[in-house]
Amino acid sequence: MFVYLSKKVAIPNGTRLRTIAWNNDQGWIACGGENGLLKVLKLEAPTGNVAEGQGGTVERSKDGSASVTNLSMNQTLEGHNGAVVVSTWNSQHRKLTTSDENGLIIVWILYKGMWYEEMINNRNKSVVTDMHWDKDGNKICIAYEDGAVIVGSVDGNRLWSQELKVPLTHLSWTPDGQRILFATQSGELHLYDGQGVFMSKVPVYCHDTDRTTSVTAMDWYNGSNGYDDKRAPAFAVSFDNGKIQLIRDVNDDAPIIIDTVMRQLNLRWNHNGTILAVSGVQSVRNIQGEEKEVSLVQFYDPFGQFLRSMKVPGKRITALSWESTGLRIALAVDSFIYFANIRPDYKWAFFSENILAYAYFRPERQENLMTFWNTKTNEKFVKLINKPLLITSYKEHCLVVTKSPDEEIDRYVLTVANAIGTALETKEIEFEPKFVAINKHGAFAASTDLMLYWPFRNVGSTKLLALEALRRTEVRERVFHIDAVQNAGDGPTNVEMAALLKRGPSSDPIEYITVSDTILIVARQSGQLLQFLLPSVTLENKYASPFRPKHLGLNCNSTQLAIVDASGVLNIMTIESRNVTRQPSGGLVGAGSHSSIKNTTSGALSNFERRDVWDIRWSDDDPDLFAVTEKMRMYVFRGLEPEEPISCTGYICSFDNLCIKTAVLDEILQQPLAPSKEHIMIVETKSLRDTRSILAQVGLADAFRFVEENSHSRLWKLIVDAALEQQEYAMAQSALVKLADYPGIQFVKRIQKLDDKQKQKAEIALYFGQYDVAEKLYLDMDRKDLAIELREKIGDWFRVVQLIKSGGGTDDILLERAWNHIGDYYYERQKWAQAATYYAQGRNYERLVECYYIIEDYERLEKLVFLLPDSSVLLRDIGEKFAAVGMNDQAVQAYVKAGDIKAAVDASVYINQVSLSQAMSLLLVITHGTMRGQWATAIELAQKYQIQEIQALLSQYAAGLLSENKRTEVIDLYRKANYCQKSAKLLSELAADAAKARKTPLIVKKLHVLAALEVERYHHLTKVDRGGFGVATATLDGLLAEDAKTGIDSRFLDNAWRGAEAYHFLMLAQRQFYAGDAEAAVKTTLHLREFEDLIEPKAIYSLLALVGFHSKRFGVCSKAFAKLESLPDLTPEEAEQYEDLAITIFGKYRPQDRKGCDSPCTNCGSMLQDTDTYCNECHVIYPTCIASGQPIYDSVHFMCQVCKHRAIDTEISGMSCCPLCHTPL
Contacts by 704-713 with C-beta closer than 8 Å and gap 24+? Predict the structure, then answer.
């Protein structure tokens, strides 16, 4: 928080003030002093803008500031002769009660805008030392110096009185209004009930042992605005020795003691009990060593933590009082009233360009909430959270620190949330963070002595952020003690957390942390600044500064650091980053290693200083530009030169593109559930304002020159816009060059090429987002197509429909798309009936089904069944919807049309409770003509429910198709009926026919593969029917069942892959030969000798002779020629040709293979040729590699899980699927 004096009001004739009280309802200020002085004042803002707050109305200026200028009322009340020493307000009944040093008590009432006496009381025996109304304003307790106590009602009747026999100095009602606490002159605290009966003494822990200590002030927060923390003390009492005791209730045996080192103390809680203001006098020494007294106001939180102090002119502060919102405090100092403004440390953050997140406490419901408000769209997402402690943000994420829900343990939760408040990642820690920061590497949390780096994983909402998250290298979490920074590069693990927590507090605690994408700065109480390199969290530099930092800020390139000290003085320090190298062990060292930092360097402080600074923000795109808020003014600095100040008390949200966005949180948090866009303000820098002014008043050329002298991308964008508006394309192009905007340059060139000035204007209007203007220009040019295209691009589908229907032809496809988009518009807003109307016109049946079901229009939903084709997947969805509401006939109708017979049976049984056989019989009759695609389900159901007619029906239908030579349809029929052996046989026959018709080998192979896959499926289904896999008996039973069920030759079922192998090796050999690998082609072709019943022998041995010749295996080539010459169907001409060719070849080459082609058998060691797959000695058969055609001699190799064929690992390693059956690997 930050506090500064904002106004001073002088009392006439120099009359010394003794009391001051600020009304919490209407803002009246009562001040009393010597010579019977009593005034009622009221402050007004110059604009008269009034906002409703929790405690009543609060006057504000347009910028939301709590600044005060004039007095709307200044009434002197006559009636007291002696000095007015006590004043108190009854806010509920709008009454003022005052008392003077003669004991005279006057109750004042407001009538027609003026204050008048209502009643007077004078006991004439003693002086009133204190008096207070209870929380409800119905009773007042008056304490006299001689120990007399009177309790009266609001109408002036005495309820009871008592003589306590001890001198009294102060009193306070308990929050429940049932008890009264009195302070005696001896410094004791006595508790009485509401009828004046003594209950107990409250222990006091602030007494001095050598003298009597008296009470100077006490105040009990009554809880009218709720308790932010139920454990927080609410009663404060001060003593003349400068100490303050804070207690939670009268039985608190562990109070908090504060030594203010001041005298003449007075104190008051703010409106919600979160800040305690303490005024007093303190002795200080000046530079010359002379001692003098100064008046101070110190501020503490409920747990006694010091927050801020403020020096006040004058000799003594005799009284103080808070405004109802806690944003101002009034001080009675000598003969003046000083007003101080409070800038609270709200828990808030601004991120993702437009999201303002803020946490607050709702006293009426005793809960903490956090609102994520999109300031652009005005959307709000409210989240219930546990007690929030700190909030910060970075780009598209915010970091929220909360107390753990388990109040029994002191743990704290770090939560990374997105723009709608959804938690992306959380972490629980064991120490209380006092400072947090976040950047692209992770989150940082620090207590006064411990530092945590948490490299959380997040996925950005944009593609670039998501890619960055994926590319990020794994960095481990680090936690360390600030006094052990030399070990920060190594980073202890979480296992050592217990040891860190046991370590004593640092003698030089952490005061603040700030972070950029490259460095982390940690400020300590002594003024020392530690600079860490990120993401390694390696110590890089140490700086010494003469300040006690309270706030830090790094510029966008991490070269300058803004330091605001405890008194609000701003200084700028230049920082540096050294090179960092990597050790072989992987750690980061160099300038960052602690061993290399022997001395702390003095930071290069600039000759710059500003006072009363409470907010600062560097520009995100200019390292020399920053904005500073001092009291109620904002200054923008370029370098160190300030621009003219702007009146503003909003908190700075962002600073980029020469615009500063501020949020008036004082006003927003008055009504946190209904924030107004009026409280988000945009402040432009002087260069931006001047550029606009020159463009408007001077001209484009002068503005161009001005921007050249004050170059910035935002200013060049203004020049581009102005040049395009004036159609000065050359200047627009020059500005775009400055921006390095290549698409913009292309746009300018494109519109320059347009021969129509109107079209140029339309394109420029579209560039500026002036869609109505662009559309009108297009329509004036009779280019409705361009107008429609424009509306399509911006998603204005209502206007697209209007333009299409306006005449000149209709594009049905575009119209349907427009109807669907309009339907989506209503669908997203849950206006189902309107959406259905447009979906029907756009033929979007999927969404139409949903809308009809939601609005329960089952009649139209039933009609939709007849409109949909049989293959539509929506029919099953419609059937499920009808079944869900018990509409059996409609559900069965939809299922039957979809062909889902099983679902139809289940629906009939479930809904109507009919027998299964009745349902099946009914469905078989219904689906006799439409069962083509669902034979598998039909057979399954027939077997399940013992319906015998289904197999005869299937055979009859298949025979009819075969008679019409529709073999492919029969194959499909058998496949769907799970008659795999029959479909496999038909596929094999198709393959044989294709081979006879000399179709390409690839087609023949595919047919053989399909046949083999059907056989594999047949084996699979047979095993399933017999009870499972992996059991020998089940496998044997399955094989026996296969022989019993099918009349097909079992050799076909056992060698289903033989046809696929034949044509696979044929194509493989040809590919190898044409690839120049004749040696591999020989090995592959030799396998074809086993398939003479599938491939013509002439083709096999011709290919073998060819590849044998080219591989110089003349022995193989000779045998191939011999086989060719002995073919039985060879004509004499062909035999003569083969003979001549053989004589030509073997007349030149000897018919034997070249040496070096042998390899040993892996079983017995005898030598084998590299083409052999069988050992004649040990009778071992070696498999053939389906990827290369070579024999596989290695025991470890690949085997396909589908076709069970094998391959050498090195040959198949680069393939994505099995070469034979093409199953993905």
Answer: 704/731, 704/734, 704/735, 707/735, 711/738, 712/622, 712/658, 712/687, 713/621, 713/657, 713/739
